[in-house]
Design a protein that fits this description.
disordered C terminus; about 130 residues; about 70% helix; mainly alpha
């Protein structure tokens, strides 16, 4: 757990993470009703997770069951590549705005959860921790 906390502190000092924490990044920028294109994009992102690693694991199980390792050797990377392509298309359709807002919010939430009481040390005034410093 100590390694996780040190890693979180390292990233929390980076400009992107620090600004997400100090500006209390939230999801308020995406309150307007999403368009059908955005909904399809978000659906594709969710679907990419379903066909990603679970599909590779399923192919591994099938490969063992039918005793044909090529199913996993060829099919695993192939289905994972398809999953990645679906994810990228989904991000493009959902829009960079949604992705950036959600990423900043998730960064803030995760770092606050991991760091807890160490979080106030990031709001110091030394040059390493000042925005733009």
């Amino acid at each position: 757990m100590r390694i996780l906390r040190k890693t979180a502190l390292y990233f929390a000092r980076k400009e992107y993470c620090r600004s997400a924490i100090l500006e209390r990044a939230d999801l308020s920028a995406i309150r307007e009703k999403p368009t059908p294109r955005i909904l399809v994009g978000l659906g594709m992102i969710a679907f990419s997770y379903v066909i990603g690693l679970p599909a590779v694991v399923a192919m591994g199980i099938i490969a063992v069951w039918i005793r044909e390792p090529l199913v996993l050797v060829i099919g695993g990377p192939l289905i994972y590549a398809v999953s990645t392509i679906v994810f990228i298309i989904g991000i493009e359709m959902a829009g960079k705005k949604y992705f950036r807002v959600f990423s900043r919010w998730l960064t803030r939430v995760v770092l606050e959860k991991i760091l807890g009481k160490d979080l106030p040390s990031l709001t110091g005034t030394d040059s390493d921790n000042c925005p733009g410093g």
